[in-house]
Specification:
Layout lengths: L1 H11 L18 H29 L30 H15 L4 H27 L7 H21 L5 H4 L13 H26 L5 H21 L1 H7 L8 H21 L8 H18 L3 H7 L1 H24 L11 H7 L4 H21 L5
Length: about 375
Amino acid sequence: MIPWLAQWILEATKATAWADDLSFLRLFRYITFRSAAAAVTALLLSWWLGPAVIAWLRRLRFGQDYADRAEETGIFTRAGTKRGTPTMGGILIVGVMDLTALLWTQWNVLVLLTLLSVVVLSGLGFYDDWAKITRQSSAGVTERIKLAVQFAMAGFIALYLWRVPATRHLISEIIVPFYKHPVAAGSLGAAIGLGLTVLTIVGSSNAVNLTDGLDGLAIGCTLIVLFVFVVLTYVAGNAIMAEYLNVPHVAGAGELSVFCAAMIGAGLGFLWFNCHPAQVFMGDTGSLALGGALGIIAVLIHQPLVLVIAGGVFVAEALSVLLQRGYYKWTRHRYGEGRRIFLMAPLHHHFESKGWKESQVVTRFYILGILCGVIALSTLKIR
């Protein structure tokens, strides 16, 4: 919105006495400037709105004042250990980053698809959080309903990208890290690409959701991935840099850099209130939306598998839950008694059970996240 307004003013004042005085508005054409402005805007908005949102959530008693128990499978939920702290703080993150993105991006199909995924998944998360709070039970929306909505939205995005000629290559050509040419294309590539797109969006959304278990853990790891994606989206949107680095060029992807910067600003602002001891939790309202946004952005820059590397912490968290559940069910069927691989799942609770302090787990996962981010960035050159 702001870039278009600046351009309109420049056009309207061309060849007038105001032209020189307003020449600074040309800055709004540059993605780098708008990305910085978006990050600062989102951070300031989060700082300003954060206390009011937290107070509002407290007044409405949007907190989980019940004690969860560890399930017999060893799947652990954290609400019982943080009783009384408001949840649904994702409202702050999503609201700020969406507003900031609308202000600072030049709207295109890529930006609008990302906004769509954020709004849909945030709404799903809000409904899940609302169900838990009103029932004062850890049983919110059933997994079947949650997955149905996620798969439906991801399927719509995948089919849309495939049907539109300008974006069809994002689906039909399969790009893998550390290799410069597509490994599959045509009909086979489209079949693989449709499935990969859906799995990327759904998997990323749920992986971030599972990581949201300790103060500052999910949002901090998300920020690390976003810093990587700011670089990847900028390179993908710049034809010269993309050609030089042998990565897929996606017209309009540069605007996703501005979107990522808005997410970084909103995330940093939320982390201000979510760091230990947390004043607010993001809840499913935030975690499902943030994870979905990472997934759709990875797809839109034609690098879905790079997200697996950059989000290595999220992948490990999700795998720990899948392995724990699968192994428990198999051993219960085989031996009549369920057994566990980890002391608890997701993985961060396993390390808590081994005696690590909460702050140790969070900081060490940050370090691992940074390592994964560096490896992901290396894919730009190692091809």
